[in-house]
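ok so heres the complex, four chains, lmk if somethin looks off
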Amino acid sequence: MLFDSPSSFGRTFRILTFGESHGAAVGLVMDGVKPDLPFDLEAIQQEMDRRRPGQSDLVTPRNEGDKLQVLSGVYEGRTTGHPIAMVVFNTNQKSGDYQAISELFRPGHADLTYDRKYGIRDPRGGGRSSGRETLARVAAGAWAKQQLASLGVTVRGFNREIAGIEGKALDWSFVERNPLRVADPGVFESQKAAVEAARAEGDSVGGVCEVWIEGLPVGLGDPAFGKLDGLLALACMSIGAVKGVELGAGFASARRRGSENNDPLGPAGPEKNDAGGTLGGISTGAPVVVRLAVKPTSSITKAQRTIDREGRPSEISTHGRHDPCIAPRVVPVAEAMCALVIYDAWLTQQELREGVVPSVSEWNWEAIEALFPPGPAL
Amino acid sequence: MLFDSPSSFGRTFRILTFGESHGAAVGLVMDGVKPDLPFDLEAIQQEMDRRRPGQSDLVTPRNEGDKLQVLSGVYEGRTTGHPIAMVVFNTNQKSGDYQAISELFRPGHADLTYDRKYGIRDPRGGGRSSGRETLARVAAGAWAKQQLASLGVTVRGFNREIAGIEGKALDWSFVERNPLRVADPGVFESQKAAVEAARAEGDSVGGVCEVWIEGLPVGLGDPAFGKLDGLLALACMSIGAVKGVELGAGFASARRRGSENNDPLGPAGPEKNDAGGTLGGISTGAPVVVRLAVKPTSSITKAQRTIDREGRPSEISTHGRHDPCIAPRVVPVAEAMCALVIYDAWLTQQELREGVVPSVSEWNWEAIEALFPPGPAL
Amino acid sequence: MLFDSPSSFGRTFRILTFGESHGAAVGLVMDGVKPDLPFDLEAIQQEMDRRRPGQSDLVTPRNEGDKLQVLSGVYEGRTTGHPIAMVVFNTNQKSGDYQAISELFRPGHADLTYDRKYGIRDPRGGGRSSGRETLARVAAGAWAKQQLASLGVTVRGFNREIAGIEGKALDWSFVERNPLRVADPGVFESQKAAVEAARAEGDSVGGVCEVWIEGLPVGLGDPAFGKLDGLLALACMSIGAVKGVELGAGFASARRRGSENNDPLGPAGPEKNDAGGTLGGISTGAPVVVRLAVKPTSSITKAQRTIDREGRPSEISTHGRHDPCIAPRVVPVAEAMCALVIYDAWLTQQELREGVVPSVSEWNWEAIEALFPPGPAL
Amino acid sequence: MLFDSPSSFGRTFRILTFGESHGAAVGLVMDGVKPDLPFDLEAIQQEMDRRRPGQSDLVTPRNEGDKLQVLSGVYEGRTTGHPIAMVVFNTNQKSGDYQAISELFRPGHADLTYDRKYGIRDPRGGGRSSGRETLARVAAGAWAKQQLASLGVTVRGFNREIAGIEGKALDWSFVERNPLRVADPGVFESQKAAVEAARAEGDSVGGVCEVWIEGLPVGLGDPAFGKLDGLLALACMSIGAVKGVELGAGFASARRRGSENNDPLGPAGPEKNDAGGTLGGISTGAPVVVRLAVKPTSSITKAQRTIDREGRPSEISTHGRHDPCIAPRVVPVAEAMCALVIYDAWLTQQELREGVVPSVSEWNWEAIEALFPPGPAL
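and the predicted structre for the whole thing:
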C-alpha cells in the first residue's frame, strides 16, 4: 500500500481523479483498462445519474447535467488498453451562492483545514473537497461494476438506517423505487418523515449505508496491508460524509464470545456470515457486507458558531441547495468505491495465479444462497 | 493511493514487511528514513515488548524473545538515510502444536482462504497470516512514534471496552499498569472477570480499542483518497482481529441531527470534537480519536464445526497457547499503525509546503486542553 | 522505482498522460504541485509551440493549434495544490491520410507491436504511439522548467549532430535562431543541406541531441535504482525516436584509462566533467550533460518492404506530412523530460532533508563557470 | 513510472534492496512472487558466484563467501506467494583498508555526493554506493532468469569491447571460459594484455558489455514511459559503472538514413534487427540487444588530486583490492537487471491480456534464427 497520490486509487486497475466543484470540470483517468472490451458510455452515465442531485424533494433541488465525455482510450466503441480520460464540464455553477461564506469557515466542512493546509483555497462550493469529486468515483465504479457483472459479481447498496430508524427487511426491489434508497417498505414513511422534519427546521439527519458484494470467488484480497477489510475501509472512509466502517458483525462482534462469533465452516461454505465475507482479509465466497456511518449533512440553514479567516468569532447559516440527508446519494458512491476495490482485487489475483481465479463454482452456491438469503446480514 | 504491494505501507515514509510465524524470521525494511538521526534500538525493543505475549495470565503464556536485529541503514548509532532492514529470528517454535490442524481449516482463521488463494499454505501457526506479522508493524511504528514525539505529537491507546463492558473514565496512568490496558480502574475487575470466565470455558472475548493522537498541527492528511480518516481506517482494519473502525462520534453521528453533530468553531479551535480531529480528512488540531472493534480471539479450545482440505465435515478444538482476549495486545499494534499514518502524513505535508508544517501554536493549546481534557472523547 | 502505470512519470512531482494522435484530445494530469504558486499558462504554451510542427520547411508542414486548456487545480491564476489537468483538443486531423495504411505495418513504427500486444489498434496516426503524446510531456516539462528556473537551475538543449555532421562550437544564442536547433553556425549550412537532400529523396536523417542542466546543487538523485543517470536514461529513452543515451563522456569513457577518465576534485569542484555532472548517480554541482541518439524519422515516402495484418508481404510508402529530421523537435521534448527528472529529484531531496537542499553556493560557482565555459562538454 | 523508493525496482514483480558494503548484511525482498513454484536456492547461488570477485587474477583477489540465506516466503522448497527476503551476511570486511580514506573523497566515487547529500556517510567501502549492492540485484535477477528460462526466454551477456579493443565474433561457448567474459577468442589475448598493462601501472580500463535477450514473444513492454527501451536504460544505467546505454544500432542509427535504418518487415518477422528488438518500446520477437558503456574502475593506485571533507586540496591513491577492469563482473549484473525488466514486462502483459501473452510461435522462429544467427547484432 504505497500511497503515491491522494487523488489516485487502485493497483492493477487505477484511477486518478481531478477537478473542483466550480472549476472548469471534474474528471478522471482510468488506467490499467484491458484492451478490446466494449465501452458502454450510456451505462456509465446511468450510474452517474443515480448519484446526481435533484432526483426528489428529499435531496438537493440542483439538477446538474453531469454529462460525461470521453477524451481518450476508446476507439470505435471499444477500449484500446490505453488510459481512458473522462470529464464532466461544470455547468449551473451559482458561485454567488458561496461568495458570502468565502471568509467564514463552515462547521463540519473542510474550509478551515484546506485554508490552513494549502494557504490558498477555492471557496466556491468547497472546491476539491466538494462532493462533486465523487462524480469521478462513480464513473470509474460504473466501469468496474460492468466488468464485475460480466464475472458474475454484483455490487449493490441501500440505507439500513435513516435518522436512527433502522430497517429490518431487505427488499432489493424497493431500494431504487424510493428516494431514500431504503430497503424496508415498512419503515420508509417514518424515515421519510424524519428527513422532512429536519429539513423543515433547517437541519439535517444521517444514516447507515450497507453494501452487499455477492458472487465472489474464494481468494480475493491480500495479506497484511492488502486485506479486503482494510481496502474497503479506506475506500468507504474516503467518502466525505463517512465517519465509520464495519464488516459483517463489525462492532457487534467486539461484544461476543469467540464461540458465538466464529462462523462454522461446512461443505457448502461458511454456515453464517458474521465475518462479512472475509477471513484473514481474503474473500470466503460468502457475500461481503460493508456498513458505512454517514453523518448528517454539514450544511444546514440553522445558525452555527464559527470563526472567520482571522479567527474572529462569527455565526454562519449556509443557505444554497443542500440535501437534508446525504445518505441516499452516498449509496451509489459507496457501491462505486467497493466495486473499485473488488475489481482491482480480481485483476490482482489473476496476476498472482497465472490468470486463474479460484472458481466461483468451488462452493455450492445454491446452498450458499440458502445460507445467505436476501435479508439482513446479521 | 496506488497499492503496490500488500506487504508495504506508507508514502513518504515506507515500510515493507516479510516473514511467517514459524519461518526463519519476521522482519521489515523501513525506507524514506531521514539521515543523521539518532537510532535508539532499545526504545524500539521496548515497544515490541509491549506487544509480546506472556506478559500476564490474561494473555498467551508464550514468551518469545523477539529480539530485534538491525541489518542495514544505521552507522555508529545514527541513520544513514538508506533502507533500515530489521529482523526478529523466530525461536521457541512449537510447530508440533500446529501439525494436528494442518489438514483442517480453523473457523475465524485465514487457513481456508490462503489455501484456496495460493494453492499452497504454510500451516505452521498461520504462516504469513499469523499475528506475528504485527511484530514488524510495531517496530516501524515505534520509530514513527519516536519521531512524532520529537515533534510534540503523542500516540497512545487503551481498551475502551472489554467483553462488552465499557469504561467511562480515562486514566492514562492506569493503562500500562493493568494487563487489559483498560483506562477505567472502576470497571477493570469486572472486565478481568469476564476474560477469566471465557478462558475457563475454553472461549474468548473481544473489545473496543481506542487510540488518541494529540498535539497535531492543523493540515495533516490529504483530499480524496488520502483523507486521514481513510488511511487510519486502512491502517486499523489491516490488523487481523479488527472488524470495524470509527473516528470521533463515528456510528453515533449517523443517528444525530447536523446541528448537534457539527463541531462549532471558536477562536481556540473546534469547541467539541465529535469529528474526531479531522475535517475533510485533514487534521483540525484537536485530538484524532480512533476506535477499533476487536473480535474475540478465533482460536478457542471449545469444539467447533469445520471442514478439511477436501471439504469433508469435521470438528476442531484449537489447543496451543492463545489469548482469551487479544485486545490488550492489539493496543500497541493499533498505536503503531496510527503512528505510521500520522508520521507519513507529516512528512508528506513537509513535502507539500516547502518543509513548512502549519504551526501547532496556531491554536491556543491551553484552551484546547480545556476543551479536550483527559477523558472520554464523546 | 515501482512502475505503476506506463503513462505516469515521477515521484514527488508526478504526471499522468493520456490521449491519442487522432482521438478527441491529448492531455495530462500534474499531481504533487505545490500550492499558491503563480501559474503562467502563456509560458507553458510557448514551450509547446517550440515542439509544434510547421515551424520551418525542414519540419512537417502541419500546423496544429495545440492550444492548451486548464481543467482543474488553478484558482485565480494560482495553483491550489490539487491535481492540474490540462488538455489539447485535437484539430486538423486528416485521418484520411492514414486510412490507406491501417492494414499495413509501417517499418520502424509501433503498428505491428501494438496490434499484437493489444489485439486492437487505433490506426489513425499511430494513436497512443504517436509523437503527439509528447505534447503532454512538454506541458509538464514547461512547468518543471519554470520552477527550476526560480531555483537557479536551467535546462536547455541543442543538436550536437545532424545526419552525422557534428558541431564543435556551442553558441546557445544560435540554437533557437535556426530550424535544426544546432549550436555551431559553422556547420549549420552543411547540416541543412543533408536534411534537404534526404527529403528530396523521400528519405530522412537522424541526429544527436544534447541537453545541459546547469546551476544544480550537490546532492540531487538517489542511490541504487534512483540514480540521476538511470532516471535521465529512462526519461530520454522513453522518447519514441531515441535509441541511445549517455552521460558525460558516455561511451568514450569505456575506451579510457581510469586515471584519464576520473574527474580530479578541487576546492571549486570537479576539475573537469567527463562524469557528466554525477557521481554515484547524484549531482556533483557540475553541469549534467546528457546526449540522445535520435534515429532518422521512420516515416519516409521511399518504398519499403513490409507485411499486412495477415502477415502477407507487401510494400509501403508513407505519404502524409512528416519531418525529414525529427531531431529539432526532439530538443524541447528532451529538455522537458530532463526537467521532470531534475525537478522531481529536487523536491524529493527537500523531503529527505527537512526541506533543506544543499546550497548551490557551496561550490565556488565563478570557478565552476571557468571550468565549464559555454562550449563542448568534452 | 512512479518512483516510490530508489531501492525498489519493478511493477508486477518487485524487489527492494538494502545493505551496505561493510554493514551487517546486504539483502533484498522479492515481492509479487507467484505461489507454489519450486525455489532453487543453489541455482541462485551459482549466479551470485559469477558476480563474485576473486575468480581470476584479472579481477579483485577478494574472495567473499556471499552465501545467500532465505528468511521468508519459501516453505518446503516452494514459494508461498509471500515476500521472499534473502540476505548475505558480510564477512571478510577489511574496514581498515578504508579508514585512511574516510576523510578524503575518492575521484569517480560517490564519497563527495553522499557526504553532501546526507550529511552523514558510512565510509567503509562506499557503504550503500558500493558495488556490493549489486549482490541483491543478481539474486533477484537469477530468480527472474529461472522463470524466463521456463518460458523459453534466455538472457545472456558478454563484453563486446575491453579497453577499446572490439570483438567481432560472438562465440557464446567462449564467454564463460575466459576471465574477461569476451566472446571473440581472436582478440582475447590482446584484450587481456591491455588489462594487465593497466594493472601493472596501477591504472584501470573500461569496456562495452552487450546483453542479448532471445525467445521473446511480440508485445512485451508498454507505451509512453513504460517502453522496454526506457526500462532497460534505467535498469542498466543504474549500475554504478555504466555511463551509456543503447539498443540495437543505438548511436549508429543517428548517423543513418531512414531507408537504411528501418528494419523491413517480412512474414518471418523483422528482416534485420537494427531496432534491437523493439518497435514503439514493445518487443518485436527479434532478440533485444542492449549495450552498456562501462567506465574504467575508479579505484586506482595511481595518485589523483582530490579534496578532503573541508574542501582542502589533497592527493589520494586507493589501495585495497580492486579490479583493473570491472566489465567482466558487470556482465552478470547487466543480465540480472535486463532479466528483471523482461520478467516484469511478461507478468505485466499477462495482467493486461487475461493471462494471455502473444505466442512465441506466432513468428517463424527457424526463419528468425536464420535472420539473427549467433553473431554481432549489427
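quick notes: The mean pLDDT of chain B is 89. thats all i got rn
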